[in-house]
Amino acid sequence: MHKYVFRRLLMLIPVLLGVTFIVFSIMYMTPGDPAQMILGEKAPAEAVERLREEMGLNDPFLMQYGRFVKNAMMGKFGRSYTTNREVFAEIFSRFPATLQLASLGVLIAVAIGIPVGIISATKQYSLFDSISMIAALIGVSMPNFWQGLMLILLFSVYLGWLPSGGYGGFANFILPALTLGTSSAAIITRMTRSSMLEVIRQDYIRTARAKGVNEKTVVNKHALKNALIPVITVVGLQFGYLLGGAVLTETVFSWPGVGRLLVDAIKQKDTPMVQATVVFIAVTFSFVNLGVDILYAFVDPRIKSQYK
């Protein structure tokens, strides 16, 4: 197992290099002058040019990128152009809010998606199955930002039951967590149903039923455990996506998380912050995927034997 983990960690290197190169290229070609933004619109041209020279912004693209990679390898991602704080200090100060929201969103998604998917599979073509699949299709197709705005309109503007945004008590979590959780639940429901349908048609399931095993035991003990592998994959991917900062959702609900930090940094052309945030998201997503792969071994002994 440790060899597998080590190989996966080594694979992070080319992934991060590719991510940083793409992001650095985009920020390099984006209109706007960081030196001008730091000094202000009314700053003298001489002062702006002097700051550009000090920051190395007049150097060729590859030289700037090489300097960035060298500094990143030493853990130096620089300071934010707007706040003058270390970029990772800013990211880590925002990450707890994103982690809390992502965790609650995934809990809602799993609590809805897996039971509904199991029932839909065991009652295929029933009224419940038809309604749940229509609801799942709507959930998959509905943009998060639109759903969030509709929830704000209903529960905050019309009914006045919940706050429309911000970070604070439990009430502030409800609308953004529902927005993230219900959209992820739709994906998990469809995957759970599909996986369960494939498993319950296997010969060993028919054999268990022929032996008179209780249907609840057949579904929960025999079918569900073998159907969980693709479901775990989807749950892990959704959790990684949410941990990376559900950008639009955090923006709609004014949530002080990593996603909103990234949006603000892009608007302000805060290059060090954008680069550090994207690297952080890529690393987080990669570690979540690694955790999912390791979890497979505890769910399916056949996979565990492949690591030996």
From TrEMBL:
Transmembrane segments: 9-29, 101-122, 134-161, 167-188, 227-253, 273-299
Keywords noted in UniProt: Cell membrane, Ion transport, Membrane, Nickel, Nickel transport, Transmembrane, Transmembrane helix, Transport
Any GO molecular function: nickel cation transmembrane transporter activity
InterPro entries given in the database record: BPD_transp_1_N (IPR045621), MetI-like (IPR000515), MetI-like_sf (IPR035906), Opp2B (IPR050045)
Species this chain originates from: Thermotalea metallivorans
PANTHER family: DIPEPTIDE TRANSPORT SYSTEM PERMEASE PROTEIN DPPB-RELATED
Coiled-coil segments: none
Xref: PROSITE patterns: ABC_TM1
Family: Belongs to the binding-protein-dependent transport system permease family. OppBC subfamily.
Claim: Transmembrane is one of the keywords in the record: yes
Domain of life the protein comes from: Bacteria
Boundaries of every ABC transmembrane type-1 domain copy: 95-296
Lineage, broadest ranks: Bacteria, Bacillati, Bacillota, Clostridia, Peptostreptococcales
Membrane topology, from the record: Multi-pass membrane protein
UniProt subcellular location: Cell membrane
Quaternary structure (record): The complex is composed of two ATP-binding proteins (NikD and NikE), two transmembrane proteins (NikB and NikC) and a solute-binding protein (NikA).
Cellular component aspect of the GO annotation: plasma membrane
NCBIfam families xrefs: Opp2B
Protein name (database record): Nickel import system permease protein NikB
